[in-house]
Every structure is written in structure tokens, then in C-alpha cells.
Specification:
Largest sheet: 7 strands, antiparallel
Radius of gyration: 26 Å
Helix content: 55-70%
Distance between the termini: 36 Å
Mean pLDDT: 90
Strand order of the largest sheet: 3-2-1-4-5-6-7
Low-confidence stretches: 520-525
Number of helices: 21
Shape: globular
Strand content: 5-15%
Order of helices and strands: HHHHEEEHHHHHHHHHEEEEHHHHHHHH
Number of strands: 7
């Protein structure tokens, strides 16, 4: 297919081929992005030890966290402490361990008890990083692929608007009882029009978040010899070299109270959400306290830095106007503010993106399958295998990840980060398996894998009830919204995928019954 002669035909050609080339990658990014909207809730589901009641409004870090930090990581250069919230009702302590790498432990904010290592990266440390890095960290390859996909999504949106002449009419057109190809095109157009502003915003803001990765020459030109100065001016990351002189830590509670008083005097709402202690036992150590952003769209960069020994204020930072724009777009993309209606709308918008991309790929392959088979070309088969892998295949991998989480014992031969790594391997091996299945059985791949999604989703709900006691009725009765919501979404996923598989089966049966009978001689040839 060559570009048409007119502008609209050229845009249609660009829309088609950009979608075919980037569709599978975009599908994976939109799916994991949709899940990341509820990554904290997925954490609660995958880490049963953190399913606690709402935390008290005030907690003492001196009493609840410091003893554990000194005991677990006395030599770690950095302690990062996340304060509890209604969504994350636990104190979170992160540090680097020489043997186990980055370690995260949870502390009960009511009792100060150290919660057993949950041995899972959950949503925040596996699904969310996959969304923007694909877990390909070598030379930031994953970031560049995701950036190319985001730029491609913008191209697809603009070219799609130009290529379609009747956007308003397509908004009201969906004929589910027509031929499958007609229904797919209606669904593609409908979802494209309904969530067009959301998809444009989410793609553009995704590019802005990692602008320093995509345009490193800007930072190098402004700060050719001092990247630390860039971090200080843009993000308020204060630093000074360790002195080698030992000391003890001043009260973190007093520093938190001082930070709260400073922000209140400046008319800034909200308290702290994160405390980071650098070089805890060194005379040049310092404590960074970051202001929460749950009450505003923008992810503010308000930080106060205190001396670790005296508690004296060393540095305070707020984003400059240009950096403030970047922080606003970052907040718009990450939706870390408290607004449950918008959170569900983001989730629906992300899933609509999956439907938009998946229906477009299905329409492309369905409209070309017969011609490519006659001509002996493999284009449709290749795109179809990739589409199945990025669609139901990725969902199967996600659900297998959940199943492994519920089946692997916490106190078995692998614990902690090793158990989390094993969960990750289960995800990738099952994903590769779906790719092999899609390549080997192309005719049945969509239907079979959708059926597998239905079965695995139901298995996840059952396993959660059996291994934790928090079955759906128990979660609903005791107000465990995160767990009940996760189970209900899994059941909704199972139902929709089984219905889709049934529709595909009925369509295939109708096509076979309507096909002309083979000549007698050909049947016996």
C-alpha cells in the first residue's frame, strides 16, 4: 500500500502503518499504565501482610522506624521512609543491602511491629516500572522505546482525526450485531473519538516526564560540568560529601514538626509524605523531607533539608516556573492526588486505549487475512501473533504473575527479593509461552487465550480467598475496598473475555457454515 495522492489519503496511510508497527508496543504500555492507576491497591492484594486498618493521623518515626532502620541497615548510605496514608496504611522503609540489593520493609504504624518480608514487588515495583521502562534498563533502551511509542501515539491521534471525515457521526455509531469487521471498525472509531483528549494528554505528558532522557543535550549544555547543580536547582536535591566523622541522629519527629510549621507559614497545604536520611551516622549527613501532593494535581518539588545531627535547616526548595509546568504535567499523568472519580476515569481511559488499539489491529488483520493467504505473505500472520501476544498474552502473563504470588510460600526456599524475582520470571516465561502459542496456532490464538484469561482471572479470585481468608464476601463485609475491588475487577475481566471468546467462536462457525461447499473432486483430491 502506497501513500495516497491527497493529504487525507496520506494521513490514512500514515495512520494505518504507524498503528501496525507500534500497535503491539502501545497495547503493552496502555495495559500496564491502566493497572498502574491502582498500583497501591494491587500491592495490598499481593502483599497480604500490609492489609491493615487506616493508619493514625500522626506517627512517631523516632519510636516506630528508627530502631528498625538502625538494626536492619546500620551501614546503608540512605534510608527512605514513606509515611502511611489511607491507600498505603503502612510505614515503608527502603534501603540498599550489599547482598540483596534494594530492600523494602513494612512497619505497622499502630504497633511499630516489623511486618514479615512480603517477597513481592507488587504493582509499584514491577507493573509500574514496566509501563515506562519495559524493564529494559540497559542504556535506557526501554525508556527510548516507550518514548517512541508515545510520539507514535500522538502521530496516530492527529492522523486519525484528519483521516476520518465524520468524527461526530462515528461518536454515535456502534453496531455490535453487524459483521465482526464492521463492529470492530465501529468500536475502533467510537473509542478513538470518546477518549481522544485523554489519550492526547496522557501521551504528551508521558513524553514531558522523561524529557531529560530524550533531550540530554539540554542539561549538558546548561550544566556541562556539574550535574549535581542541575539536581539542586531543578529538584532541590541537596548533597554534601560525607565527613568520615561519626555522630548520632537528631529527632526526625522534631524535623517533621519544623517542616510542617514552615509550610504552614508559607500557606502551603498538606504535610510530609517522605523522609530521606542520607549518611545517617556521618557528621555531614542530612535529612530531606518532601511535602505531600495528594491535595493538588501538580507533584510539587517542595523539599526541606535538615542537618542530621543538629536538626538545623540547611536548604529549602520549591519548583521554579518552568520546572513547575513539568511537575504539573507529571502530576496529571501519574494521578497521585486523591480523587477516586478521576482515578476510575483514568482507568477507564486506559482500558479504552487498549480496546482502541486492539480493535484496530484486529480490523487490519481481518481485512487482509484472505488476500495474504492467497499470496503466500506472512504479514498478517506476524502482526496477528504480535497482537495476540501484546493483548490477551500480556493479560495472561499478568494473571500468571498474580497466581504465582498466591502459590509461592512466603517462608519457602526462596524469600524476600529472590521470591520477587521468581514472580517476575513467571511473568516473562508465561508471556513468551503465549507468543509461541500465537505463532504456532494462529487460527485459534485469540479465542484460546481469551478463554485462558477468563480461567486465570477466576483462579486468582479463588486463590486469594483460599490463601488469605479475604474472599470477596469477607472483603466487602469488612470494608477492605482495595481487595474487594481487585477481586471484582478480576471477575469482570473473566466475564468480558469469556464473552469475547464466545463471540469469536460463533463468528467462525457462521463463516464456516456460509462458505461455499468444496467441489467433489477437490474434497477427494
Amino acid at each position: 500500500m502506497a501513500p495516497g495522492k491527497g493529504f487525507r489519503q496520506s494521513m490514512s496511510w500514515l495512520h494505518t502503518w504507524a498503528g501496525v508497527l507500534l500497535g503491539s508496543l502501545l497495547l503493552a504500555i496502555f495495559w500496564t499504565g491502566s493497572l498502574s492507576v491502582f498500583d497501591r491497591e494491587i500491592d495490598r492484594w499481593m502483599q497480604p501482610g500490609t492489609r491493615l486498618a487506616e493508619p493514625p493521623p500522626q506517627v512517631s518515626l523516632d519510636r516506630l522506624v528508627l530502631p528498625h532502620a538502625k538494626n536492619l541497615a546500620p551501614d546503608a548510605p540512605v534510608w527512605t521512609i514513606n509515611l502511611p496514608t489511607p491507600r498505603v496504611p503502612v510505614l515503608q522503609l527502603d534501603y540498599e543491602d550489599p547482598q540483596h540489593g534494594r530492600v523494602r520493609r513494612y512497619i505497622n504504624p499502630h504497633t511499630g511491629e516489623l511486618i514479615a518480608d512480603q517477597g513481592s514487588w507488587g504493582g509499584t515495583r514491577f507493573i509500574f516500572p514496566f509501563h515506562f521502562s519495559l524493564h529494559l534498563n540497559w542504556r535506557s533502551v526501554g525508556y527510548w522505546l516507550v518514548g517512541a511509542a508515545a510520539m507514535g501515539m500522538l502521530v496516530l491521534l492527529v492522523s486519525g482525526v484528519v483521516a476520518h471525515r465524520k468524527l461526530i457521526a462515528e461518536f454515535f455509531t456502534f453496531r455490535p450485531r453487524k459483521r465482526l469487521q464492521r463492529s470492530l471498525l465501529d468500536l475502533h472509531n467510537l473509542t478513538g473519538v470518546v477518549v481522544l483528549p485523554f489519550h492526547f494528554m496522557i501521551s504528551l505528558s508521558g513524553l514531558v516526564i522523561f524529557c531529560l532522557i530524550y533531550f540530554p543535550s539540554v542539561a549538558q549544555a546548561l550544566y556541562p560540568n556539574d550535574q549535581a547543580q542541575l539536581k539542586l536547582e531543578a529538584l532541590g536535591t541537596y548533597s554534601r560529601p560525607p565527613s568520615g566523622l561519626s555522630t548520632d541522629i537528631a529527632s526526625l519527629d522534631t524535623m517533621l514538626a519544623s517542616a510542617q510549621a514552615i509550610w504552614t507559614s508559607q500557606g502551603k497545604p498538606g504535610g510530609a509524605y517522605l523522609v530521606r536520611v542520607r549518611n545517617p551516622f556521618d557528621r555531614n549527613g542530612h535529612v530531606e523531607i518532601r511535602r505531600a501532593h495528594s491535595q493538588a494535581v501538580t507533584m510539587n518539588a517542595d523539599r526541606l533539608t535538615f542537618d542530621v545531627t543538629t536538626g538545623a535547616l540547611l536548604h529549602q526548595h520549591s519548583a521554579a516556573p518552568i520546572a513547575g509546568v513539568q511537575r504539573f504535567l507529571t502530576g496529571l499523568h501519574f494521578i497521585q492526588f486523591d480523587h477516586w472519580t478521576l482515578r476510575w476515569l483514568y482507568f477507564a481511559g486506559g482500558l479504552a486505549g487498549c480496546v482502541l488499539i486492539g480493535s484496530g489491529l484486529l480490523f487490519w488483520t481481518g481485512s487482509r487475512r484472505a488476500r495474504h493467504e492467497r499470496q503466500g505473505r506472512i504479514g498478517v500472520r506476524l502482526v496477528e501473533a504480535l497482537s495476540v501476544t501484546a493483548g490477551p498474552g500480556l493479560i495472561i502473563a499478568t494473571l500468571t504473575f498474580f497466581v504465582a504470588n498466591r502459590l509461592l510460600p512466603l517462608d519457602g526456599p526462596v524469600t524476600g527479593n529472590q521470591r520477587a524475582v521468581l514472580e517476575g520470571w513467571v511473568f516473562f516465561v508465561s508471556w513468551l509461552t503465549t507468543m509461541a502459542h500465537a505463532a504456532w496456532y494462529p487460527a485459534q490464538a485469540w479465542r484460546r487465550q481469551l478463554q485462558a484469561v477468563g480461567g486465570l482471572a477466576i483462579a486468582c479470585v479463588l486463590l486469594n480467598g483460599l490463601t488469605t481468608g479475604d474472599h470477596l464476601l469477607h472483603s466487602l463485609w469488612h470494608g477492605k475496598a482495595a481487595i474487594a475491588g481487585m477481586d471484582l475487577m478480576l471477575l469482570a475481566l473473566a466475564g468480558s473475555c469469556l464473552l469475547a471468546a464466545r463471540r469469536i467462536r460463533l463468528t467462525c462457525q457462521a463463516r464456516q457454515s456460509n462458505s461455499p461447499p468444496e467441489p467433489e473432486a477437490q474434497r477427494h483430491a
